[in-house]
Amino acid sequence: MLARETLPYVLAMLLLGIGVYAIACKKNLIKAIVGVIVIDYAVNLFLVLQGYRTGGEAPILAEGQEVGAFAGASVDPLPQAMILTSIVIGLGVLALMVAMALRIHEKYGTFDLSQIRKLRG
Amino acid sequence: MSQPGMSLIVKEVAKLVTGFIALFAAYIIVYGHLTPGGGFAGGVILACGFILTVLAYGKKFANRMISDAGTKLWDTFGAVLFLVVALFGYAVGDFFGNLWPGQGNFRLVSAGSIPLSNIAIGIKVAACLLGVFLALSVFRPGEAGGKEEDR
Questions:
Q1: A95 touching B (Cβ < 8 Å)
Q2: Residue A74 belongs to a domain
Q3: SS3 category, B3
Q4: Fewest beta carbons within 10 Å, which of A97, B42, B101, B124?
C-alpha cells in the first residue's frame, strides 16, 4: 500500500491527470484554460512538496534563533522561492490565454472548439 | 438603479475597505524582508484593492481613475525604479550591490536597498495586474475590431 510520504505525490499526479483530461477532452475553450492552470498548480504543488520536511517549520528566521539550528529544522526555502516565480509566470500565461480566448470569442461568437474548427474550414 | 456599478451596499463597503486593503498592501511590501510576502504579494493585494473599486463602481469610474496609458506608465516606472536601485549598487562596486549595510537584524531599516527593490516590484506588480484586469474587462479599443479583421 501507499506509504504516508508518497501519498501527496500521488495526489499531485492525480491533479496533473485532471488537468490533462480537461485539456484533451473538454470542447469549451475556458475549460481547457482551466485545465492548463490546474496542471500549472499541480507542478507547483509537486515541487513545493520536494522541499518539505516532516515536522519542519516555516523558513523565516525569528529573532533570537540560532542559524544552524534553524537551518536544521526548517523546510527548504529554495523550491518555495522558485514556485513564487512560477506562479507569476502562470499568471502571465493565464492572462495571455484569456486575452486570446476573448479575441476568439469576438471573432467566432463561441467558445466551442469544434465549432471554431468548422467555421475556419 | 440607474447608477452604474453594483448596489449601494457593495459601494459603501468597498469605500470602507479599500483604504485598509491599500494599507495592508503597503505593510506587506515594506516589511517584505522581515515577514512572508514582499513586492509581489503586496502588489497583488494593492491591485486587488483597485479591482474591488472598479468592480463596485463600474466602467466609467475605472476610466476616470486610470487610463490605459496610466497603467503602462506606472508599470514602466516600477521597472525603471528597480533598475535604478540595481544600478546604484555600482556605487559599492556591484550590480545589485547593497548600498547601505544593515544596522542589526529584525528592524524595518536593516536590509539596505532590498526594501527599495520591494517597493519598486510592488508598484510594478500592482500596475501590471490592474492593467491586465482593465485590459481584459474595461478597455476595449474598437468593438468592431474583432469582426472586421480578415482571418
A1: yes
A2: yes
A3: coil
A4: B101
Q: Does residue A21 sit within a domain?
A: yes
Mean pLDDT of chain B: 82
Classify residue A104: in a domain, yes or no: yes
Q: Is B148 on the interface with A (CB under 8 A)?
A: no
Give the whole-angstrom CA distance, residue B41 versus residue A47: 20
Per-residue pLDDT, averaged over B104-112, amounts to 74
Which pTM does this prediction carry? 0.79
Per-residue pLDDT of chain A (121 residues; tens, 9 = 90+): 567 778 888 999 999 999 999 999 988 999 999 999 999 999 999 998 888 887 788 877 777 778 788 888 888 888 888 898 899 899 999 999 998 898 888 888 888 888 877 665 5
What interface predicted TM-score (ipTM) does this complex get? 0.72
Which of B98, B146, B27 is CA-nearest to residue A101?
Answer: B146
Q: Per the structure, how many domains does chain A have?
A: 1
Residue A112 one-letter amino acid: D
Instruction: Average the pLDDT over B16-35 and give the result.
Output: 91
The residue with cell 519542519 is: A56
Q: Cell digits for A100? A: 486570446
**Structural domain contains residue A60:** no
Please tell me the distance in Å from A95's CA to the nearest CA on chain B.
7
Q: Residue A81 belongs to a domain with what CATH number? A: 1.10.287.3510
Interface mutation target, options B31, B35, B40, B150, chain A, most CBs of A under 10 Å? B40
What is the extent of the structural domain holding A31?
7-55+66-120
- Grid coordinates representing B100? 547601505
Between the alpha carbon of residue B110 and those of residues A70, B26, B88, B100, B120, the distances in Å are: 20, 17, 17, 9, 18
Q: Give the pLDDT of residue A104.
A: 85
